């Protein structure tokens, strides 16, 4: 059995693992990444962020073609099948794999394809694709093995009409109807995608409103626009039984309802990928969701074993995973620590949603005196030109200091637009004030105009004593 030794071994090549390994190599460590998939990129590239965003982009283009009058001169509205849009998605995945693979050679990070399992705190056994095993030793380890969809035992995921967010990408047909169980971010995004493809969607939410962590006004807007696209949103429902048949899936609800669709997409919960890691060999234990706890240096209870990304739970975003990867590499070489807790929310529904900072409910509960400024996209020149008039930008700010406390946005490119406000929020006082948007010249016509309109609207509301 061959044996290799490194300063740092990272298990998993998703955003967290890649960022940690590249950053550590740049800091002079001899680093390796072990990845059980034949190609790098993690679930982010192959099952999660990238495919879902590429799918959504194609569907959005299709919707623009079908709804904007300028295209009627080219012909009638068209349909695309799910496998057709997946062809473009697969191209994007290949570009991503090519780009990420090049990073390994460029940064001299050794890539080992195989499944890693701890033997002890300084070595792992790697099961190679040809069935052979290899022992890899290292001073330090980073677990960046990500997460997978949670699969309850009483749902038959082997049935051809039952999908989760990983297997849906292999669907070879376009159903007439689909029920999506779980109305979290992934469920809402797929509800938009399927509705945009003209599929009848039932979105089943176990809670009382959509994405309760959002500002109420934005959550209400999402409900309105999903329903406007034809999605049936059902709140406060829990399944009692899932019955797949030859022609579809019937879901019996605890409320006594029976919902039927051609296919079921299960989007309720995720589990950390820790079960195959041999954690007991190093005295570590994951929680009931398969997640690991870490300290402010992303170190687990074993002092040379670290963990980052989805495997440590919240916020379970690719954006935060990249930053956690860089932060853990800095912590390992003794260059301080940074806990990533201020990631903005980017939700790629149709319309797109993004926010950063506090919501109105949070500020009200904390008795912070704030005011709100709003701008509707339909009143900006840029939105009128692009034809994407649905949307709103909302700025929450302190009435005494003008400090920006929250930015909440929905509509086209919301996830980009939010960064303008985020950059100002991050400035030290008094430069983090809403006044910036009134006193600065922006390109015109751009969506930055929405910031100016929202700022003026908000400042005009402030009651002066
Ligand atoms: C449908 C969907 C949409 C999403 N959209 C967004 C979005 O728009 N924006 C956003 O920021 N986030 C989004 N996310 C979340 C994002 O994909 C994850 O937060 C991110 O992938 C986590 O990165 P990671 O590095 O922790 O792990 P992952 O990307 O999960 O990668 C972990 C890797 O570890 C490997 N591995 C596991 N066990 C072993 C082992 N024992 N040995 C070797 N290798 C192993 C796996 O094969 C995998 O390649 C989405 C997720 C889903 C499911």
UniProtKB/TrEMBL annotation:
Q: Where in the cell is it found?
A: Cytoplasm
Q: Which Pfam families match?
A: Pyr_redox_2, Pyr_redox_dim
Which Gene3D superfamilies does UniProt cross-reference here?
3.30.390.30, FAD/NAD(P)-binding domain (3.50.50.60)
Instruction: Provide the binding site for FAD.
Output: 53, 145-147, 310
Record domain Pyridine nucleotide-disulphide oxidoreductase dimerisation: where: 344-454
Q: Check the record and name the InterPro entries matching this protein.
A: Class-I_Pyr_Nuc-Dis_Oxidored, FAD/NAD-bd_sf, FAD/NAD-binding_dom, FAD/NAD-linked_Rdtase_dimer_sf, Pyr_nuc-diS_OxRdtase, Pyr_nucl-diS_OxRdtase_dimer
UniProt: NAD(+) binding residues: 182-189, 269
Q: Which UniProt keywords apply?
A: Cytoplasm, FAD, Flavoprotein, NAD, NADP, Nucleotide-binding, Oxidoreductase
Cofactor requirements of the protein: FAD
Q: What does the UniProt cofactor note say?
A: Binds 1 FAD per subunit.
Q: Which residues form the FAD/NAD(P)-binding domain?
A: 6-325
Q: What does this protein do?
A: Conversion of NADPH, generated by peripheral catabolic pathways, to NADH, which can enter the respiratory chain for energy generation.
**Which family is annotated?**
Belongs to the class-I pyridine nucleotide-disulfide oxidoreductase family.
Name it.
Answer: Soluble pyridine nucleotide transhydrogenase
Provide the organism lineage as a comma list: Bacteria, Pseudomonadati, Pseudomonadota, Gammaproteobacteria, Cellvibrionales
């Amino acid at each position: 059995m061959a044996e290799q030794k490194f300063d740092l071994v990272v298990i998993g090549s998703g955003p967290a693992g890649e960022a940690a390994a590249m950053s550590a190599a740049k800091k002079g460590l001899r680093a390796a990444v072990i990845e059980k998939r034949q190609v790098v990129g993690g679930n982010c590239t192959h099952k999660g962020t990238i495919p879902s965003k590429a799918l959504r982009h194609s569907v959005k283009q299709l919707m623009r073609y079908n709804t904007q009058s300028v295209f009627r001169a080219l012909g009638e509205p068209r349909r695309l099948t799910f496998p057709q849009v997946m062809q473009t998605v697969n191209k994007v995945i290949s570009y991503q794999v090519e780009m990420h693979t090049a990073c390994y050679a460029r940064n001299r990070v050794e890539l080992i394809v195989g499944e890693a399992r701890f033997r002890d705190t300084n070595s792992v056994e790697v099961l190679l694709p040809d069935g052979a095993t290899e022992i890899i030793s290292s001073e330090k380890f980073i677990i960046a093995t990500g997460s997978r969809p949670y699969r309850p035992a009483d749902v038959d995921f082997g049935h051809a009409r039952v999908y989760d967010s990983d297997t849906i990408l292999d669907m070879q047909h376009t159903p007439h109807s689909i029920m999506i169980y779980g109305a979290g971010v992934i469920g809402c995004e797929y509800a938009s995608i399927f509705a945009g493809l003209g599929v009848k969607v039932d979105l089943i939410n176990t809670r009382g409103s959509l994405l309760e962590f959002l500002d109420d006004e934005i959550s209400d807007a999402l409900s309105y626009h999903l329903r406007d696209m034809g999605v049936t949103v059902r709140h406060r429902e829990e399944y009692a039984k899932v019955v797949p048949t030859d022609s579809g899936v019937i879901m019996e609800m605890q409320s006594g309802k029976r919902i039927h669709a051609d296919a079921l997409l299960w989007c309720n919960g995720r589990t950390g990928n820790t079960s195959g890691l041999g954690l007991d060999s190093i005295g570590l234990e994951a929680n009931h969701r398969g997640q690991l706890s870490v300290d402010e240096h992303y170190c687990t209870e074993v002092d040379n074993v670290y963990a980052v990304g989805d495997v440590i739970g919240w916020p379970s975003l690719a954006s935060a995973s990249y930053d956690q990867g860089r932060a853990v590499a800095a912590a390992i070489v003794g260059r301080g620590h940074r806990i990533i807790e201020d990631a903005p929310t980017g939700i790629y529904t149709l319309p797109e949603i993004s926010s950063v900072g506090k919501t109105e409910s949070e500020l009200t509960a904390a008795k912070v005196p704030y005011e709100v400024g709003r701008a509707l996209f339909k009143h900006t020149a840029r939105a009128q030109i692009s034809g994407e008039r649905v949307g709103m930008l909302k700025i929450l700010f302190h009435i005494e200091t003008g400090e920006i406390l929250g930015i909440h946005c929905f509509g086209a490119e919301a996830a980009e637009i939010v960064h303008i406000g985020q950059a100002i929020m991050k400035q030290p006082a008094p430069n983090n004030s809403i006044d910036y948007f009134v006193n600065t010249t922006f390109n015109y016509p751009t969506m930055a105009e929405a910031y100016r309109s929202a700022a003026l609207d908000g400042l005009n509301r402030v009651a002066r004593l």
